[in-house]
Design brief:
alpha/beta, 5-stranded parallel β-sheet
């Protein structure tokens, strides 16, 4: 398990370094702009679980005129994010895992999880959802992907 965590931290850092400074994902923008999600709502504090390069968090902070925290597993990635966004006093980043969020219960008015849970191991999947619920005071938005092509292995029950 320790090696798996180390490898995922490496993947997190790779993703951050390739997306930091980019615009928010087009599908993310379409969802938030076309559906007018939470229009008129003003959260005091947002958590972005698996924040990646931070673009989605920055969009949400600006949209809601609030403060936000992004969480990622890579300590080096978090350092890069804090350096990149150091001039934005409304955004900060910290190290942590989706299955063990380092925040008190009901800490955030909005918890946002974009394209993260498909990376979570099956032993931590439900715990990750539970942690997101635990720290969400008002709203939890989980948005993940459905592959264009079926990637699952068909299940075949073997009678005992």
């Amino acid at each position: 398990m320790e090696k798996q965590t180390e490898n995922f931290s490496d993947e997190s850092l790779r993703y951050i370094t390739t997306t930091i400074g980019n615009e928010p994902d087009a599908a993310f923008l379409k969802i938030w702009q076309d559906t007018k999600l939470l229009e008129g709502y003003r959260p005091d504090h947002i958590l972005d679980v698996g924040t990646g390069g931070g673009a989605q968090l920055q969009f949400l902070v600006e949209k809601f005129k609030t403060k936000g925290v992004g969480i990622e597993v890579s300590p080096d990635g978090v350092a890069l994010l804090n350096e990149h966004y150091k001039h934005n006093e409304n955004i900060s980043f910290c190290e942590g895992n989706a299955y063990k969020l380092p925040f008190a219960t009901d800490s955030f008015d909005l918890v946002h999880v974009w394209s993260v849970f498909h990376w979570v191991g099956r032993n931590e999947y439900l715990q990750s959802i539970g942690e997101s619920i635990r720290v969400a005071k008002r709203y939890l938005m989980i948005l993940d992907f459905v592959a264009h092509k079926d990637y699952r292995t068909p299940y075949h029950h073997q009678p005992s």
